[in-house]
What does this fold into?
Amino acid sequence: MLVTLFSCRKNEYESGGVLSIVMPMANIKALHIGDDVPLKKEDFEGAFELAGIVISDVDNGNFAKNELVVQNTFRGTVTGLIFSFNDESTNFKLGDSVKINIDNTVLTRKNGALKITGKDFKFDRVTKVSSNNVVTPRKVDLISLYSNFYTYESTLVQLSGMSFEGITNGQPYKGEAQFATESASRYISIR
It folds into this structure.
């Protein structure tokens, strides 16, 4: 008579679950150190989406209809990016929570701004998750903004400790304006 016994023991240290398809925006921004960076899900263990809240306001025309500015918070750090599409849309509003498929796109700096673009990058890659989310700007003084520009780039900020001459609070403005701080008066271009 042949008797075979088998025994199994559960691995108590085994991690369960699957990898997320959503990546932190801060991790993607950190990849750009000067040259364009191709973004492919194979290079990110299958992850291919970025998520966040729309901070561009297409209704008031502060960005082109082919671009979205989206910010998110990951581990206490607020990060934003501009997404530049090959078509136009007015379907995504300030405060919309969105997920964006960035597979086969490029992270590039164009005209001084860090953007995600691509040959076939269209608005059909954007999924609205929810609407009417409250977006609170971070208050920052001009010196901090200039000193830490890349920290604040493409995020919603409210400048404090300064005023624009001849412009009423809350008034939309485009062009060149003179501003004053406690220590200086300068000109700035606003778009």
